[in-house]
Amino acid sequence: MKHVLTATLVLFLAIVFCNCNRGPYAASNRAYKQQAKALSEIVKQTPPKDSLPQIASEWVGTTNFNLRKPNFVVIHHTAQNSCDQTLKTFTNTKTSVSAHYVICKNGKLHHMLNDYLRAWHGGIGRWGSSTDINSSSIGIEIDNNGIDTFSAEQINTLLSLLTNLKKAYGIPAANFIGHSDIAPTRKVDPNVHFPWKRLADAGFGLWWSDTTNIALPANFNSLQALRIIGYDIKDSSAAIQAFKRKYLQQDKSTVLTDEDRKILYSLYRKYE
Ligand SMILES: [Zn+2]
Question: Is 141 one of the catalytic residues?
């Protein structure tokens, strides 16, 4: 009888174990573990084999350190047709793209990478003087084909996630930005339906104030204001379009009217 019970228990554990290791992402979960282990080996090296300069040096390990923290959050739309499609894209090594989080239409959140590790979501871009946004940011992808509105469930999940991230890493409100902000010549995400004002009201990103009483200074330079906010102004039309995509969402023109300039001025004062 005892043997039968033992055999049943072994069989039961085997089934449980097998189930844990099946599923469409079992192989990529294993690959994740291997890569994380390989990276941990690099961190453990003493002396470290990093950018050691070609001059004589002696290794003395300090006792005072911790992990680097993300200081930006970059929000994207996936420009794909389903969450499953995005999960497949981010678990296929050939694509070389990823994000820390994916939010499905029903609000379900997928965590795909430890916040302390570098995802490949920003690509070539710039914000202020920062040219390697992937190294300092969390990437969040929202399932959206690039045209549709975002679901209430998605925004609710996003706001909870942003609350946690802001608290965990002390990320400044101004550092919650969109992909289009950092790559205005290449990217338009998140699309014009994204509720940036609602996010700013909740402390994620900055928004302009009432412009009724604003008198523009005679020497106000719109492009320099965009640059100070963070935009790369090498392509000025692209920078203006990115600004409008976020703050004047239905306006597609590349010209700034006096009213637009007042809005820009109001915003820029918050970055000074
Ligand atoms: Zn993007």
Answer: yes
Q: Measure 55 CA to ligand 1 centroid, in angstroms.
A: 41
If you measure from the C-alpha of residue 7 to the centroid of ligand 1, how many angstroms do you get, rounded to a whole number? 52
| Cα separation, 135 vs 126, whole angstroms | 12
Residues lying with their CB under 5 A of ligand 1, a single-atom ion: 76, 179, 189
User: From CA 46, how far away is CA 246, in angstroms rounded?
Assistant: 46
Fill in the DSSP letter of residue 127: B
Question: Per-residue pLDDT tens for 121-135?
Answer: 999 999 999 999 999
Q: State the distance from the centre of ligand 1 to the C-alpha of 64, rounded, in angstroms.
A: 36
Amino acid at 48: P
Cα–Cα distance measured from residue 182 to residue 88, given in angstroms and rounded to the nearest whole number: 25
Q: Which of 141, 153, 259, 272 is catalytic?
A: 141
Nearest residue to 174 via CA among 225, 127, 139:
127
Q: Where are the alpha helices (DSSP H) in the chain?
A: 2-20, 26-44, 83-90, 133-136, 152-169, 179-182, 196-201, 222-229, 236-247, 258-269
Could you read off the pLDDT of 66-89 as tens digits, one per residue? Answer: 999 999 999 999 999 999 999 999
The residues, ordered by sequence, that sit 6+ positions from 42 with a Cβ below 8 Å of its Cβ are: 48, 49
pTM of the model: 0.91
